[in-house]
Amino acid sequence: MLILVAYAVLYSLPLVRGYEIYGTPLTDSLYHLGVVSDIISNGHIPNELYPATHILFSELSILTGLSANTFQMPVSYLFSVLLITGCFVAGRGLFGVQAGRYVLAAAIPLVYADLQITILPWFYAICFIPLFLLTLHKAVGVGSQIVALVFAVAITMYHPLTSLFMTVVVAVYTLWTWLSRSRRNQSIGLPLAIGVIAAIWAIGSDRVQGMIAGVATGAATGGGVATYASEAANSGRNIYDLVVNFLIIRWGTAVLYMGFGGLIVLWITYRSIRGRQRAEIQMVSAQYVAGGLFGVSLAAGQVLARNPVRISQFCLLFSIFLIGYGLWAASQNSQRRTARIASAILIMVVLSTALLGAGTAYEDNRQVTHTTIDGSSWFLEHRDADIQTRSFRMSRGVQFYIQGNNLARASSVAFSRFLESRQLPKHLGYTGNGTAEEVFGSRQYIITKTPDVVWTESQYGDGNIERGYTQTDLTKIENDPTVSKAYTNGPYDIWFLQ
């Protein structure tokens, strides 16, 4: 109970601070809230990929009269509680009551860190996987099979790509059932797999096909995480900075849990070869391996952008069960020195992950401020859509959030995180150029924000910057005779290059 209260306080921090929304102007939450605003205004559910998330936020807003962005943190908190509870219940059902308590302890840290405190349909969907696996394991009658199908539909409605992985879970479970000669559950495997695949094709099948095609395309062109790693290596940072900023701060929770989860899989494999391991943990180990292979296929392409934690989400989920089981197994052999050492190490892993998850969930300078939304709203209302816009760390999600789904799709792109022609060069292009006209030519909108300067300083300090701009660059554009200021609200400036 104290843990739930502590997390309630943690999740309420952005509400207390009064942010417009927690996340950067690049966050997917902006897009989702844009779709929600259209549902609220016209009552029509668009043909988007995540209907359950959009309907949930729409109904909460309609029933309470509060704006949809108010529910970003409460909904994320409730799904985090669902994940913790689901792991506990599934751990009890698979390994026994005592082992389930250790799985509960392993599930408490924010293993997905900052990804657990934003609007992400894939995270909502993955929270149902533990309960789905348990009902699949217990599905010996019609009632339990119906419950399993309900969870399957919920996962599909929240995130079709997660339901694609759910077919992998079913396939692994069915194979384990056959190999372990426990045939009581085998009949449910194939119908569930077929049902889930049919649901995927029914809901936005063209986009799911695009995701799958992206794996093959990305693998052929060397994109995705490989590109990210190459960019990091060429950023000019030393090895120490890369390790601290990425392997510890950004991905530390995943590195710890998946790393030690993999070691436990090796231990379980060794014991299984010697015929001394229970079947359920063998099945969970197989799910861990399948999740890892699924993540590798995504990493080979550009399906889930460049976030290793998101790419490894399924492997990370089953790491919770493995670490919980490892803690329980060590406690059962506490008279042995090796077991006591293993127990101490795993306890440190859980505690370190808890500290990392809570400590890195709220990174500096992430929030979308009211001034950013106010300035962007003014710009979208008054801009000439035929004139190109240059900005930094802005996405089309801002446009969706302000204009709604339908209008944003019908309008020309104002902001983009992907189009190179919409980006501001480092130092606003003043490196080697005297004026903005020399950099951009003519007739351009240039948007600068104080949060961009803060972000640049936090990323690069006093060193050479690879992206972004500094206060010195803002002073240069202030004194640049080739541009004029069209709008300002203090931290947000819109410049026009004639």
Give an overview of the whole structure.
It comes from Halococcus hamelinensis 100A6. Keywords: Membrane, Transmembrane, Transmembrane helix. This is Glycosyltransferase RgtA/B/C/D-like domain-containing protein. It is elongated, with a radius of gyration of 25 Å. It folds into two domains: 2-360, no CATH class; 370-497, Rossmann fold (3-Layer(aba) Sandwich). Helix 2 packs across helix 3 (51-64), helix 5 (97-107) packs across helix 17 (313-332) and helix 17 (313-332) packs antiparallel against helix 18. It has 24 helices and four strands. The longest helix is centred in the N-terminal third of the chain and has 24 residues, at 72-95. Helix content is 66%, strand content 4%. It has 498 residues and is mostly helical. The chain has helices at 2-17, 28-42, 51-64, 72-95, 97-107, 121-126, 129-138, 142-158, 160-179, 186-202, 205-221, 225-233, 239-250, 252-273, 279-300, 308-311, 313-332, 337-360, 370-382, 396-403, 405-410, 436-440, 450-460, 471-478; strands at residues 388-390, 444-449, 483-488, 492-497. Strands 1-2-4-3 form a four-stranded mixed beta sheet, with helices on both faces.
Layout of helices and strands:
Blueprint: H1 2-17, H2 28-42, H3 51-64, H4 72-95, H5 97-107, H6 121-126, H7 129-138, H8 142-158, H9 160-179, H10 186-202, H11 205-221, H12 225-233, H13 239-250, H14 252-273, H15 279-300, H16 308-311, H17 313-332, H18 337-360, H19 370-382, E1 388-390, H20 396-403, H21 405-410, H22 436-440, E2 444-449, H23 450-460, H24 471-478, E3 483-488, E4 492-497
Parallel strand pairs: 1-2
Antiparallel strand pairs: 2-4, 3-4
